[in-house]
Specification:
about 250 residues; alpha/beta; nine-stranded mixed sheet; 6 helices
């Protein structure tokens, strides 16, 4: 079975982001990067699929050449191949452009299943995996927390606002992965050394223009400074008054 897992390079959760001078995007100078958290779950599920059903796993990213660092980590964990669709401005692409580029590469790979994280932790759109499935014409199950897969299809459970939904599907399919689906493994020293010098191909692709135009990027307004309204039980009336009259929450 041909299996693809798509990942995205995002700023670390501790990063202090700044906007560019024209307020059209993020200033990436000095940022440190990581793989989006949910994408780690996607790669782990891809590796588990290979271990159960056989085949090979390709980890794919649209991003800068430096993203080979994250890809090499997943090779050390058990993926077979990796590729960078080289784009130094990947963080400025809208979901549609990203999905079209990835879908074309997945189609070319001959994959039967593609895994994505349910959402990228920078944009929080939850759109690229679903759009990829649309462009591929494949079945799609999103926010999956449990998965049983065979060589021809599977059954998935997904969390909704109304409870847990059970879905059956046939391959080929796109699965977007949620917390609880698995626990991503860590690379051991043997795996790290085995892939230390393994080449990571940098591939070109047919460009897709953005449809979405960013008008302005700005940080949220600063929070008002807090204050202490009193101590102990005697402070309760003042606290209630502040919550009701100033915050408007009760």
């Amino acid at each position: 079975m041909k299996i693809v897992a798509c990942i995205k390079r995002v700023p670390t959760t501790e990063a202090q982001v700044k906007t560019t001078s024209d307020s059209k995007g993020l200033d990436t100078t000095g940022l440190t990067w990581m793989c989006s958290f949910y994408d780690e779950i996607a790669v782990e599920q891809a590796i588990q699929t290979k271990e159960k059903l056989g085949g090979d796993v390709t980890v794919l990213t649209l991003g800068p050449a430096d993203a080979s660092k994250e890809l090499r980590e997943f090779l050390a964990r058990g993926a077979d191949n990796a590729a960078v669709l080289k784009d130094e401005q990947w963080h400025q692409r809208d979901a549609r452009a990203t999905a079209k580029v990835l879908a074309a590469r997945i189609q070319k790979s001959g994959a039967e299943i593609a895994y994505f994280g349910k959402v990228a932790t920078d944009r929080d759109n939850s759109a690229v995996g679903l759009m990829c499935a649309t462009y591929l014409g494949w079945a799609c199950v999103s926010d999956v927390t449990k998965l049983e897969l065979t060589a021809t299809g599977g059954t998935a459970q997904r969390e909704t606002e109304h409870g847990v939904e059970t879905v059956t599907f046939t391959l080929p399919a796109v699965i977007t992965c949620n917390k609880g689906l698995n626990e991503p493994r860590r690379a051991n020293l043997k795996g790290i050394m085995a892939v230390k010098t393994k080449p990571i191909p940098e591939e070109s692709f047919e460009d897709v223009a953005n449809q979405q135009v960013v008008a302005k990027v700005e940080p949220p307004p600063a929070r008002k400074a807090g204050r202490i309204v009193g101590e102990g039980a005697a402070a309760v009336p003042a606290l209630i008054q502040a919550l009701r009259g100033e915050a408007g929450v009760i």
